[in-house]
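JOB MANIFEST
job_type = single_chain_structure
chain_count = 1
residues = 446
[input]
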Amino acid sequence: MEKKEIVDFDYLQCSIPDIHGSPRGRMVPKHLIPQVLKNGFGIYQGIGNFGMNMEIHMQLEEYTSSHFSNGLVMPIPATARAMQWSSTAQRKTGHAIGSLLYRDGQLDPVCSRHTAQRQLARLEKMNLKIKAAYELEFMMFEGEDASRPLGGGKKQFCNMELLDEHVDFFMDLLDSLRRSGLPVEFFNNEADEGQYEITMEPRDGLEPADAAFLARYGIRAFSRRRGYSATFMTRPAYPQGANGFHLNHSLWTRDGKDVFFDAADPLKLSLFARQWIAGLLLHTPALCALYCPTVNCYQRFNSGMAPRAAYWAVEDRVGAFRVKTSDSGAYLENRLPSSACNPYLVLAATVAAGLDGVERQLECPQPGPLADSKQAGPLLPKSLAEALEYLQKDTVLREAVGTKVVDYFTVLKRDFEIKHFEDNATADMSKAERVELERKYYMPYL
């Protein structure tokens, strides 16, 4: 968006994605928009690294040693768009994603959007770009808790009659997202009570993560205005199922060639794609920490159509990586991420792991679950604590994503989230009681 269009907003919301993928920023009134576009605005340097429940990170010396000093948010004009869900006939509201800077103007490397940018820069050096789209699964409830799923507690995947009960609300929601410039594609009810899915059109580079970040924000905000609660918590209620956040992606040359595709291969899959998959499989245990970043996420695996093992196959919904090919192209559906993920960290980690496979020319296992084979993929972690251990030990992924990023992420998850449930969960809790404890912690913010 041109600056002359941005200054026409009555208010400009400017935010960065925090480590959890939530928006943190400030609302800028019309008379200050030109100044903020030129100079940015001050904000606490550690704004992106609080605990999920606003726990203060006293363990992170970078912030305590500076006495919690300010950094700078600089709006990125190219990301500016109308924000339809908070606009009215009398007031136009816009939104711009910002860059988080130190006071000397250097990018803060811990900001998750910058983390993704660094990985995409590696692709650019190879004259490649990623084309990707997220699938957003979420749950809707009447009221503020998870006791009344929208749709009356019926389980009907893609049932149009059930969807019709609230069709005006959903059409208004989709219209609001599209008019905000978000590449919303299809919409349907999913397989569980109050569960829905929005797919996005493929976009290049950072745009898929930007779109998912803002769509999640918009869905929650729009729903609140209508008296509903939308949540991207992975499993907000028991015995209901869980939400995913699949990343469909392929790599392309600058002249428009799909490098995942090979017309001569029986599966239409190139050697590059197989090496990419091999990298993802090798790093799967560590990737799970970034893909499934809450304690609650690990109730999703091994249930329904969620991944059950770290393998790849063509058109297989229970493997970690589902390949889709045709006579004209190929792409990969990464089915591991949960709805509670940070889309920027998922994008960054996926590129880092895939490139490791390509750069080291790793051999790709045969497709399918090979439980009795040495080529079988690694098992999926059973908890966030286990996944964090894998992440810390995976030096290749840790260095690629950023040692500081991984260390801060690990501290916040271990010292706040994992500790919270160690202190408050008891061994005699039922599964329903445990999920309710997790819901109270996560649902207000996801």
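[summary]
The radius of gyration is 21 Å.
The chain is about 35% helix and 20% strand.
exit_status = 0
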